[in-house]
Write a structure and sequence with these properties.
The complex is a heterodimer of chains A (227) and B (215).
Chain A lengths: L5 H10 L14 H6 L1 H4 L4 H26 L4 H14 L3 H21 L4 H9 L7 H11 L4 H22 L5 H20 L13 H13 L7
Chain B lengths: L17 E6 L6 H14 L4 E7 L4 H7 L9 E5 L13 H13 L5 E5 L16 E7 L12 H5 L2 E5 L11 H11 L5 E3 L8 H11 L4
Parallel strand pairs in B: 1-4, 1-5, 2-3, 2-4, 5-6, 6-7
The chains are: A mainly alpha (227), B alpha/beta (215).
């Protein structure tokens, strides 16, 4: 019988929803999109997840994660990449949410002593870096010794899983149904993860209905989630 | 492979402002207590900052910011993602980050109050987040709350029983409720308050200054 590798065990630890990352407080526009369904058309959870994978994560967050990973702890270069993420994330609610989620993940890695985390947190605090989630994921998961493919897999899995748990808390779907939805979405994550990423690849996303919903919802002042 | 997964005992100690948690059910008077504690700490020369966790957006934070009692910049809001338990216990990172930011912004801060979103009797604070915490219940919630042995009531450093003035109107024998709470907590500290009239608040401020700030 093959024994599980330490690489796999560490990947499980960091992919686990119990790992303190702040991610539970963000819905990436799910709350806004579902609550504004009457104004913006029909809302359907599976379709929302599919859009997030294809039109946000695959060509924006995943690309930022991979590029951050390859920067191997070069904090100034990570800050430059962070500026690209900032500039390419159109809606304030998603932009600030990504920064806050990144700061939360940096906080945990800073306390755990992950190489570069405390220094990058200091750069975020004094305004030299934005600290977007995908950039922080790349920084942290490279620093703990995961390989690039595993880091991408964790990023994709967490994105889908966090949408599932947010949907459960919002009462949109049941907990078991959420697992079925996650299982149906994983092949799409895999397909996206397989696409090569150039070291200077641009960040591209296109999810206008979600962005409009976040912008409208942000102005309403009534939110359970940070975005 | 550098897993960097050291055990808690190997983590470096945090140096900075003391952090205390204020938890309890919806409507028990957590925000009202904070509004009373702010001038009490000011009178004792304690530099303060506050983090609130709201179920929906930043209502409690806005209430405190508009109170005129404290510089609004010293009040931060953290949304709880429909999970008031999680944001103070299983994953307190958003609150830790908010408190860290307040500390960096106001280096003179000695004490940070972290108010939980309204929750139930099972909520407790992570000791990654706070050094000391209190749990606020109120007499109108029922005199059987101490007997339910909720972790919030049992494990907090100070149990606060608020709205004592309402006891006669809701059929609560306050003395019996206090005695049951003392029994459930095996004699650990408890305070009776009426935040509307400021009764009992000074004693809480004195206890925090003594037990947390070691003055």
């Amino acid at each position: 019988m093959n024994q599980p590798s330490i690489q796999l065990l560490v990947a499980l630890q960091h992919a686990d929803g119990q790992f303190p990352s702040g991610g539970f407080a963000f819905s990436q526009g799910l709350e806004a999109s579902s609550s504004l369904a009457g104004k913006l058309g029909v809302f359907e959870f599976a379709g929302f997840v599919d859009t997030q994978i294809r039109h946000r994560w695959a060509n924006a967050d995943r690309v930022a994660l991979v590029r951050a990973f390859r920067l191997a702890g070069d904090l100034d270069a990570l800050a430059e990449l962070d500026r690209e993420v900032e500039a390419s994330t159109f809606v304030e609610g998603l932009r600030s949410g990504s920064r806050r989620n990144g700061a939360a993940l940096l906080t945990t890695h800073g306390r755990l002593g992950t190489k570069g985390a405390a220094a990058y947190r200091a750069m975020v605090r004094d305004g030299r870096a934005s600290g977007h989630l995908a950039v922080v994921q790349g920084l942290a998961w490279q620093a703990i010794g995961l390989d690039e493919a595993t880091a991408v897999a964790i990023g994709g899995y967490q994105m889908v899983a966090s949408l599932g748990t947010a949907a459960v808390r919002l009462g949109l779907i049941g907990a078991i149904d959420a697992q079925a939805s996650i299982a149906r979405a994983l092949p799409e994550v895999e397909a996206a993860a397989c696409r090569p990423v150039a070291d200077d690849e641009a960040l591209r996303s296109f999810a206008p209905l979600c962005e409009i919903a976040v912008a409208m919802h942000g102005a309403s002042g009534q939110r359970l989630f940070s975005n | 492979m550098d897993t960097r997964t050291s055990s808690l005992s190997q983590l470096p100690s945090r140096v900075g402002a003391a952090r205390i948690g204020i938890g309890g059910p919806v409507g028990s008077g957590k925000t009202a207590l904070i509004e009373r504690l702010i001038p009490a700490f000011a009178a004792r020369g304690v530099s303060l900052a506050i983090v609130t966790n709201d179920l929906v957006t930043a209502e409690d934070a806005e209430r405190i910011r508009r109170s005129g009692l404290i510089d609004p910049a010293r009040v931060a809001a953290v949304e709880a993602g429909a999970c008031p338990h999680t944001v103070i216990r299983e994953d307190p990172t958003l609150n830790i980050a908010a408190a860290d930011d307040l500390e960096a912004l106001f280096p003179d801060v000695e004490l940070i109050l972290i108010e939980s979103g309204g929750d139930n009797l099972a909520s407790t604070f992570s000791l990654d987040l706070v050094d000391w915490w209190m749990f606020v219940i109120d007499v109108a919630g029922g005199d059987d709350i101490p007997r339910k042995n909720g972790p919030g009531v049992l494990k907090c450093d100070l149990l606060v029983v608020n709205k004592t003035d309402l006891a006669p109107y809701v059929g609560v024998d306050l003395a019996a409720m206090a005695a049951q709470a003392a029994t459930a907590r095996a004699g650990r500290p408890m305070a009776l308050t009426n935040c509307r009239s400021n009764d009992g608040v000074d004693a809480i401020a004195d206890r925090i200054v003594s037990d947390v700030l070691f003055r």
